[in-house]
Design brief:
Blueprint: H1 2-17, H2 20-93
C-alpha cells in the first residue's frame, strides 16, 4: 500500500510540475487502444478469410461432384443413342 501511495504521489508531482505529462499520458493510452483495435481487426479479418476459403472449397467440391455426375449421365446417354443408331443400321442392312 505504501508503494502505491508513493507512486500516486509521484504521479501527482509530475502532473503539477509538467503539464505536458497528461498529454503524453493520453497519447500513450490512445496508442494502446488503437493497437488493441488493430489486433482485433486483424483477427476478425483472419476469421473472415478462413470462412471465405472454406465456402470456396465447399462450392468447388460441390461443382466438381456435379460436373462428374453430369459427365456420367451424358456418357451413358450418348452410348445409348450410339447403340440405337448402330442397331437401326444393322437392321436396315439386314
Amino acid at each position: 500500500m505504501a508503494r502505491c501511495a508513493a507512486l500516486s504521489a509521484a504521479v501527482h508531482a509530475l502532473v503539477w510540475c509538467d503539464p505536458s505529462f497528461l498529454t503524453e499520458l493520453q497519447a500513450g493510452a490512445r496508442g494502446m487502444l488503437a493497437r488493441a483495435d488493430a489486433r482485433r481487426e486483424r483477427r476478425l479479418q483472419a476469421a473472415v478469410t478462413i470462412q471465405r476459403n472454406m465456402r470456396m472449397l465447399r462450392a468447388r467440391s460441390q461443382f466438381a461432384t456435379t460436373k462428374k455426375a453430369t459427365l456420367v449421365i451424358q456418357s451413358a446417354w450418348r452410348g445409348h443413342v450410339a447403340r440405337s443408331v448402330a442397331m437401326d443400321i444393322r437392321y436396315a442392312t439386314a
